[in-house]
Amino acid sequence: MSNFLHFIVTLLLMLSCSLLNPTYTAQANSSPNTVYEQRTIHSLDGIGKYYMGREIAQVMGHTGAGWLERSRRETEEQPSKVITAINLQPNYVVADIGAGTGYFSFRIAPLLTAGKVFAVDIQPEMIDIIEFFKKEKNISNVEPVLATVTNPNLPDESVDLALMVDAYHEFEYPQEVMQGIVKALKPGGRVVLVEYRGENPFIMIKRLHKMTQKQARKEMQAVGLVWRETKNLLPQQHLMVFEKLT
Asked: Which of 29, 34, 219, 237 lies at a 20 to 30 A Cα distance from 134?
């Protein structure tokens, strides 16, 4: 009887821990062999998957394409400053990762008179939109690339600069995708990460759709990229520059 009571007490303690402490549940669902942690209790804006302490945000689907092309975007975010700040050369090959509708791709392409843009996205619907704009705008040096959640599907050592604007925080497998991007970069190639500033609670963007500079640098360092500079020239976003050394 005493053994039975001991079993019941132990079981009750375990249940109370799992109910009162969400991280207990997370540990139970995590594998020691993975860099990711899955938690049962999590933000409604996230997928319950954590990477290096950060919960990964829900992906903005293709139904949000109109928001990417909104007329007030230049006023709110000043994307033209991003294009000026990244110092593009005419022969560059640029990968626009999480390209969406190709908002940046089609603004960058005319500057690359001897280069091109890989417009990379995981959603076939976004690729269709890019193909439509490519024909409508008569721009030939934008190449749509359908990626997967784990692979950007880019040729090895083919890219001078990889640009990610408000996209990285939604990657379901950030480490695998970044490893693929690093592999695609030429030696000395750069990654430019643009993210809403997570340090500022007054920026009216959902918490999981912002990143602190400290977190971004930690995650880029994990795949071997070296931080070079952060340009805080945008109204609400960090512009962080990283480099592949070899």
From this structure: 237
Residues near 198 by Cβ (< 8 Å), separated by ≥ 6?
207, 210, 211, 212, 215
pTM of the model: 0.84
Backbone dihedral angles phi then psi of residue 245, each to the nearest 5 degrees: -80, -40
Q: What stretches of the chain adopt beta strand conformation (E)?
A: 36-38, 46-51, 54-57, 93-97, 116-121, 142-146, 159-165, 185-197, 210-211, 226-231, 237-243
Which tens digit of pLDDT belongs to each residue from 161-175? 999 999 999 999 999
The rounded Cα 91 to chain-centroid distance in angstroms is 25
Q: Which residues pair with 202 in a beta bridge?
A: none
pLDDT tens-place string over residues 203-231: 989 999 999 999 999 999 999 999 999 99
